Amino acid sequence: MIGADARPALAQGAAAAAEPRRGPETGLPLPRYVSLKTSEGRARRGPGQTHRIDWLFTHRNMPLRVTAEFENWRRIEDMEGQGGWMHHSLLSGVRTVLIVDEVVTMHTQPQSNAPEVAHLQVGVVARVLRCEPDWCRLGVNGHRGWVERAALWGIEPHEFLD
C-alpha cells in the first residue's frame, strides 16, 4: 500500500517520464531528426577529431537521428542504426525524410484517391514541408505533394510539423 506522502513523488516521476529527454548542450529533445548539411560527413567512434572514422556519409540532406550530445559533437545514426559522433557544424535543422517503400505515390492531397503528382523510389530524400497524423507534404526535385507517413523514415510517429 502506498502512503499519502508517496503519491506526489510518484506523480512527479510519471510527469518526468512523459517529458522528452533533452540534450545537455542544446536543450533540444533527444532523440530528434536533423539532416546532413554537406555532401560529406564523417561519423567518428567518439566525440573528437582524434577518434577513428567509422562511417562516411556522402548524401547531402540525408536525414539522421541525433541520440546524444557532447560539447560540439552529436551522436547520430542513419535508418539502419549506423553512425557515430559528428561535429554539429555538419548538421542542419532542415527536416528531410527517406523513402523506405519500393515505390511511393505522391498525391495532390492527403488522400490515397487524390490525383498523383509523382512516384518516388526507395532511397529518395525529400524535404518535409508539413506533417499531419497519417500524411506528410514533401518537396523533391521541383515536385510537391502528399505521401503516407508510413513510407517515410526521418519523422517520429507522434510528431507534427506545420
Biggest β-sheet strands, sense, barrel: 5 strands, antiparallel
Report the CATH C-level class of the largest domain. Mainly Beta
Helicity range = under 10%
Q: CATH fold name of the largest domain, please?
A: SH3 type barrels
Percentage of β-strand residues:
over 45%
Overall average pLDDT = 90
Distance between the termini: 46 Å
Shape estimate: globular
What would you say the CATH architecture of the largest domain is?
Roll
How many helix segments? 1
**H and E order:** HEEEEEEEEEEEEEEEE
Number of strands: 16
Query: Could you say how many structural domains there are in total?
Result: 2
Q: Can you offer a commentary on this structure?
A:
- It is built from 1 helix and 16 strands.
- It has 2 domains: 6-94, SH3 type barrels (Roll); 97-153, Roll (SH3 type barrels).
- Mean pLDDT is 90; it is low at 1-12.
- A hairpin with a 2-residue loop joins strand 14 (135-140) and strand 15 (143-148).
- The radius of gyration is 19 Å and the shape is globular.
- It has a 5-stranded antiparallel β-sheet, with no helix packed on it. A 5-stranded antiparallel β-sheet has the order 15-14-13-10-16, with no helix packed on it. The protein has a two-stranded antiparallel sheet with strand order 1-2.
- Helices cover 8% and strands 46% of the residues.
- It is mainly β.
